[in-house]
Amino acid sequence: AISDNTVKIGYLADMSGTYRDLAGPNGLAALEMAIKDFGGKVNGAKIEVVSADDRNSPDTSSSTVRRWVENDKVDLVAGLVASSVSIAVSKILEENDRLGIVSGSAASSITNEHCTPNHIHYVYDTYPLANGTASAVVKEGGKSWYLLTADYAFGHALEGDVTRVVEANGGEIVGSVRHPFPTQDFSSFILQAQASGADVVGLANAGADTTNAITTASEFGVTQSGQTLAALLLFLTDVHALGAETAQGIQLTTGWYWDMNEETREWSDRFMKETGVRPTMVHAGIYSSTLQYLNAVAATGSDDAQTVRKQMMETPINDMFAKNGRIREDGRMVHDMFLAEVKTPAESRDEWDLYKILRTIPADEAYRPLSESKCKLVNN
Amino acid sequence: MSSNPDREYEQLRMSGLHAFYGESHILHGIDLVVHRGELVTLLGRNGAGRSTTLKAIMNMVGRRTGSIMINGEETMQCAPHHIARLGVGYCPEHRGIFSSLSVQENLTLPPVVRSGGMSLEEIYTMFPNLYERRFSQGTKLSGGEQQMLAMARILRTGANMLLLDEITEGLAPVIVEKLGEVLVALKNKGLTIILVEQNFHFAAPLADRHYVVEHGQIVEEISANELSAKQSVLDSYLGV
Amino acid sequence: MSEQYVLETRNLVKEFKGFVAVNDVNLQIRQGDIHALIGPNGAGKTTVFNLLTKFLIPTRGQILYRGEDITPLKSAAIARKGIVRSFQISAVFPHMTALENIRVALQTAEGSSYSFWKSGHSLHKLNERCMELLESVGLAEFANTTTVELAYGRKRALELATTLAMEPQLLLLDEPTQGMGSEDVDRVVALVRKAAQGRTVLMVEHNLSVVSKLCDRITVLAQGAVLTEGDYQTVSADPRVREVYMGSDGSGERGAQAPSQENVEAAQ
Amino acid sequence: MNQTFNPASIHQAIVEQQKAQDRKKMIVNGVLLLLLMAAPFVMYPVFLMKILCFALFAVAFNLLFGFTGLLSFGHAAFLASGGYTTGYLLSNFSGLTTELGILAGTATATAMGLVFALLSIRRQGIYFAMVTLALAQLVFFFFVQSEFTGGEDGMHGIPRGELFGLINLEDNLNMYYFVLAVFIACYLLVQRIVSSPYGQILKAIKQNEPRAVSLGYNVDRYKILAFVISAALAGLAGSMKSVVFQLASLNDAHWHMSGEVILMTLVGGMGTLLGPVVGATFVVNVEYQLSQGPLRDWVDPILGGIFVLTVLAFRSGIVGELQKFMRKNLG
Amino acid sequence: MTMIFGVPLAVLSGQLLIGIINGAFYALLSLGLAVIFGLLKIINFAHGAMYMLGALVTVVLFDLLGVNYWVALFVAPVLVGAFGILIEYFLLRRIAGQDHIYSLLLTFGVALIIQGVLTNIYGVSGLRYSMPDLFKGGINLGFMFLPYYRAWVIVVALLVCFGTWFIIEKTKLGSYLRAGTEDSQLMQGFGINVPLLVSLTYGFGVMLAAFAGVLAAPIYSVTPVMGSNILIVVFAVVVIGGMGSIGGAIITGILMGIIEGLTKTFYPPASSAVIFLVMVVVLMIRPAGLFGKEA
Ligand SMILES: Nc1ncnc2c1ncn2[C@@H]1O[C@H](COP(=O)(O)OP(=O)(O)OP(=O)(O)O)[C@@H](O)[C@H]1O
Ligand SMILES: Nc1ncnc2c1ncn2[C@@H]1O[C@H](COP(=O)(O)OP(=O)(O)OP(=O)(O)O)[C@@H](O)[C@H]1O
Ligand SMILES: [Mg+2]
Ligand SMILES: [Mg+2]
């Protein structure tokens, strides 16, 4: 049965800090679109939304989520961006047996050593990012790599994944540099990358670090001197900020792009009407996962975490976000990923027309196989 | 004393002046008049409000009411920098030597407000100590040297009304003697001087008139020639 | 007392970037004396004080206290030996009451100054002594007044009382009467005289009447070096002292020569 | 007027005055205690514990800043090192009871406080603040680089365990009363320190350091002691916080946290005992409540506005202004 | 190839040059901060925000009005400087003479407001601004490729730094400023309009930050939070140089750029921490910074 005849969804994300643009207030808009599209009610029960800024702080987020689940009877926590916040929240959800869907975090540890039976990791993680971009670039002849890695857990994970993929495909890492997070001036590192003579300069960082590195690379003529830039985590908002002129030719992996087909375009147009911007993969993931959740609640007639999660795991995901996506027992939603290249200014029609999709990376190839999982829910 | 043609000109007139520091009411209605070329002293015990009177003229106290006319102009609404530009030179009790400036920079700091001030050479001949130490940091001077510097720097500006607060403090007797001569010379040049002094022996022979301040009020006015007659009154006020 | 001198300096020198502020000074201060250090402005008197109390490090030379070489000691250690100074520019704890100011000084001897676990009431036993000291400088009625609110002269008096609270063996006073009205000056003179019983005092003073009344022995500094030494009579008779320091009016009174002699007499 | 007073009566008056003040303090403390005891029945306990931890942190900071005049811009280092140590020990040594873990965290912060103090105490004013900031940044760098902290993912799943092996702290109410007890004890300790003989010397040093030196005090040692006590209490706050939330994160080590505690103290009223408590409560609450409400995108600018307003209109902080008001109106 | 500690000499020379360029940036930013602290005793925590405003105004002016880089180089600092004067006039002035800590709290609050409001308007991903055409490309120095724009940054930043130093240390106006900070009341008593001087000084310091912001716009991601992290680094530079020493701030800025550059070569992870290590060591040896006067 549905508790108190209400399905209550808590949206927790960075509303004002570094991750604001990739999820933030617009993610809430996506969530509300999903509820509206679903019809505003589930099996006659109300759907309510509460939301909060996570302040990028695990303890503020813990307080919020504890109150949500203990006092406000929140059934689902959505959003979830900073990995420290996602992990902290998932522990609380496990304690209280509620459900969480992580849409914004990159850490693959969320469904690996930190997996719980109470959360789902929906959009992407570092594993396919490395897999998609690195293998494609190596196959195209980019054999020797130089890595610029953000010196924190996310960067280290990405670096590890990239190294594995590059070496598996017959390439080699000729050098790497771990830069502090955040770094504004990358010229010194770009210079070292240039001096290394590597074919590819890989950016194992995110956000402002990545955009700064790309700007500097373009200023120092990295591509002119024959090197390729490979960014491992770029959101549409980052590329938009850089512009096609600076970012052109960069290859990247994404879980979704707004301009892939009729369905995505239709939804993105509606999203843009609401928010004024094109959606990132995180926005689309929030929309999709919320719909999937509500469908499962409707199907089971219950908002109990385990019941709903089971139902979601049993139902393949086929919507504008993913085709044949499925949720594994470790909580990982696996779906096809896409290798994209940033268009040249000549190719780009408008400021949001930024990617060419080069290749689809099949779900099974993209994500960490369960056989390698350290998740306590997986019997290895 | 030399009689000056401007003697009747009212350089300064304070009437009903009250002054406050925050909550505390320090001056309770001061009335006094100083004519051009006159040297008057403010005498009184510690804490009587003499320094405050000078600061009030400069608009450097918390709040003031009443009236202060300088050269016939009402200055209650004037900012301190306007008052200085009326030709008032102020030598504060705490000396106010700037540590980020050298002695020479300290000396040349106050802008010249009128012509007729002393030149740097004149000042250096008057205070050879300063000349010797002119490149050292202002606050590295000895106590007495700082006092000389504080006095010397307003002599350069050409101000024609000097407010001098305890200028002999901490000075060796020879220098005090010299300062006495300087004041006489300045007076002869027609400058108006208001002198706050503890050192009555220094002030007595120089002044035309004395005001005795007590509890923020003028309680007695004594001119130079009534000094001997009113000696006992004065002693009782000053607690000699 | 085996040592004749409480304090001795041997060839004390202080240079500031090539400028010699104190030049080869040999001071000898006898037990029980009130010893004055006088000299023109910039002669190096305050600097000598700073050297004796280690607020400045001597460039060369030695400082002996009761025969013991104290040159390497730090300020606080010197104070604990019983050499205590007052400052030329007034030094009080502005946001404490007068009584608390003195109590801080008394706590040094108390030995409880690190006791952060003890109640504040444990300090009340010092109040009586505080009141005595305050009374001796005429500040008893201001015991409970916050020090900022005291007039300048009273702050000086308070500072002196605080210094006395340390029960110093050797008291260093830098211009104790500066900025005081004649009334206060007399009080300070009396106070110093009282304080000097059983102690030794070294003072810098420009007020010659104070010096002449109080001091047993006088050292005249000029340009960093000792010019002469002796009792007041000897020193004031020395023409060199008259020239560099006392000026033409060597009468012992502080002040300039009067342009009109009558006025001065009238004033006295 | 010299006749109208006598020293003995003044002395008496001073003692009376202090006793009256003590009584007032007792009343305030009593009311505060009752409020805090009852609070978990009205408010959410974990949130209350968060407030108490930050309040303790601010109280610790204020001992140094408000009462000794030393502005440390590196107190986050103590908060974080307390938290990480306790978190690490409790996660990895299951035999350890919670209070031992907390003690160990406090001890680490204390030791670190001593090192900070020895390196910084001779610096004056802004230089002191900057040395402490620099040291804290180095500590931050260490935490980022170390494996055991979990980097920016943080340290998660710290067990609350059992107090003295007896009281189950997984229970929020038990945990709350434990945190409250520790907080009260520390608060009373600071209250005591401030009025103790030692506190008098700190006050003197704050007001006129050269004078204190000339009175024979080795001021460095007094300052070091204050610094170490303050670091210990800050570490204790961090240790408890890691147990309360069962996590420790880099946020606690970031310089923003050192800044935040300054803000809490100023908003509440520096140099008052209750100020940091009120300030921490206020800032934590405002930030939390705003982040939940319709203004959740505007938390930072609103906090900024509050700081500006505090400086312009309530410079002595909430408690400071209240005291002024009472003094004026109630004599 | 000549190697130094396993790094080719050519790379090392490149890194040194980069270090100097970044140092010039630090110098410009810390100069503004040093002027404001040194002369006004205001701990300007809004300095990072002003730097950001300089960059943001440049971008916004271009987007809205098509104002080009060269015009922005003058207009943006002037606009931001004027904004700074308003802040001084309406806010900072009211706390003149209070403990420095209040200026920290106040300017920190102002920075939060500015950054927060702009984040809500412009987001955090960054705004697009392209390099003026004149500066596209660069020259090959043999040991490295030097973009023209970086060469321009170093030249213009050093010129501005030197000019400022000259005004403050060598002119009468500068001595008014220095004295005014010690005892503004007395300076007023000498006939100097101190409040005006203070406003202008604050405005000028802020202008320097904004100028650095304009220089940054084409090469760094322009976001409302771009100034928040650079702030403490710049503070560190000023302190290492010695608070209040104008020349010290400039020299230290460049020095820190170089040290940071070398760290980026030899042990990159420490490159953001190294400046603090230097600060601890320097203050250990010289309690008032490299060029500061001891109190
Ligand atoms: N800034 C201030 N705030 C509050 N009270 C002050 C301030 N300055 C002076 N006072 C008080 O004002 C009164 C008059 O002080 P003022 O300095 O004018 O005295 P004075 O006659 O010059 O004596 P002194 O010989 O001590 O210089 C004193 O009681 C003093 O405590
Ligand atoms: N820190 C310093 N640096 C450079 N010169 C100094 C320093 N301190 C003092 N001096 C110089 O040393 C000389 C002696 O100064 P000192 O303060 O000892 O004089 P003093 O005898 O006490 O004079 P006064 O009677 O005026 O107080 C002065 O010329 C002064 O300028
Ligand atoms: Mg006075
Ligand atoms: Mg002296």
From TrEMBL, chain B:
InterPro entries hit by this protein: AAA+_ATPase (IPR003593), ABC_transporter-like_ATP-bd (IPR003439), ABC_transporter-like_CS (IPR017871), BCAA_Transport_ATP-bd_LivF (IPR052156), P-loop_NTPase (IPR027417)
UniProt-recorded Gene Ontology molecular function terms: ATP binding
Domain ABC transporter: 12-240
Short name of any one Pfam family annotated for the protein: ABC_tran
UniProt keywords, alphabetically: Amino-acid transport, ATP-binding, Nucleotide-binding, Transport
Database matches in Gene3D superfamilies: P-loop containing nucleotide triphosphate hydrolases
UniProt family annotation: Belongs to the ABC transporter superfamily.
PANTHER family: HIGH-AFFINITY BRANCHED-CHAIN AMINO ACID TRANSPORT ATP-BINDING PROTEIN LIVF
Protein name: ABC transporter ATP-binding protein
Organism name: Marinobacter daepoensis
From TrEMBL, chain C:
PROSITE patterns per record: ABC_TRANSPORTER_2
SMART domains: AAA
Region annotation Disordered: where it falls in the sequence: 246-268
Keyword Cytoplasm: no
Composition skew (Polar residues), residue ranges: 258-268
Domain ABC transporter span(s) in chain numbering: 7-248
Gene Ontology MF terms: ATP binding
UniProt xrefs under CDD domains: ABC_Mj1267_LivG_branched
Keyword ATP-binding attached: yes
Keywords for the protein's UniProt record, in alphabetical order: ATP-binding, Nucleotide-binding, Transport
PANTHER family recorded: ABC TRANSPORTER ATP-BINDING PROTEIN, CONSERVED COMPONENT OF ABC TRANSPORTER FOR NATURAL AMINO ACIDS-RELATED
Annotated protein name in UniProt: ABC transporter ATP-binding protein
UniProtKB/TrEMBL annotation, chain D:
Compartments, as annotated in UniProt: Cell inner membrane
CDD domains xref list: TM_PBP1_LivM_like
Keywords: Cell membrane, Membrane, Transmembrane, Transmembrane helix
Signal peptide residues on this chain, from the entry's feature table: none
Transmembrane segments: 26-47, 54-80, 100-119, 126-144, 175-194, 224-249, 261-286, 298-318
Membrane topology: Multi-pass membrane protein
InterPro entries: ABC_transp_permease (IPR001851), LivM-like (IPR043428)
Source domain of life: Bacteria
Protein name listed in UniProt: Branched-chain amino acid ABC transporter permease
Species of the source: Marinobacter daepoensis
Phylogenetic lineage: Bacteria, Pseudomonadati, Pseudomonadota, Gammaproteobacteria, Pseudomonadales
UniProtKB/TrEMBL annotation, chain E:
Keyword terms of this UniProt record: Amino-acid transport, Cell membrane, Membrane, Transmembrane, Transmembrane helix, Transport
Superkingdom of this protein's organism: Bacteria
Primary localization class, coarse: membrane
Membrane topology: Multi-pass membrane protein
Keyword Glycoprotein attached: no
Residues annotated as transmembrane: 12-37, 49-67, 73-92, 104-129, 149-168, 196-220, 232-259, 266-285
Subcellular localization, as worded in the UniProt entry: Cell inner membrane
Record-stated family: Belongs to the binding-protein-dependent transport system permease family. LivHM subfamily.
Protein name: Branched-chain amino acid ABC transporter permease
Organism classification: Bacteria, Pseudomonadati, Pseudomonadota, Gammaproteobacteria, Pseudomonadales
